[in-house]
Design a protein that fits this description.
Structural class: alpha+beta
Strand order of the largest sheet: 2-1-3
Low-confidence stretches: none
Radius of gyration: 11 Å
Shape: globular
Number of domains: 1
Largest sheet: 3 strands, antiparallel
Number of strands: 3
Number of helices: 2
Mean pLDDT: 92
Strand content: 25-35%
């Protein structure tokens, strides 16, 4: 999960959305802060974690 600094506060973005929405992220001037592997975190854009593991 990537943490971005935005004008509206810090936002977590999953790996998939970071790639798919790369242009939007750059247009809005979001700045990357750090990455974290944590299944509790949810993406601001899609609401999902980085990876879904089947039980």
């Amino acid at each position: 999960m990537h943490l971005f600094e935005t004008k509206d506060g810090d936002r977590w973005v999953c790996i998939t959305c970071a790639e798919e929405k790369k242009e939007i992220i750059e247009e809005n001037g979001w700045e990357w802060i750090l990455d974290r592997d944590d299944m509790v975190l949810r993406c601001f854009l899609c609401g999902h974690p980085d990876y879904d593991f089947d039980d």
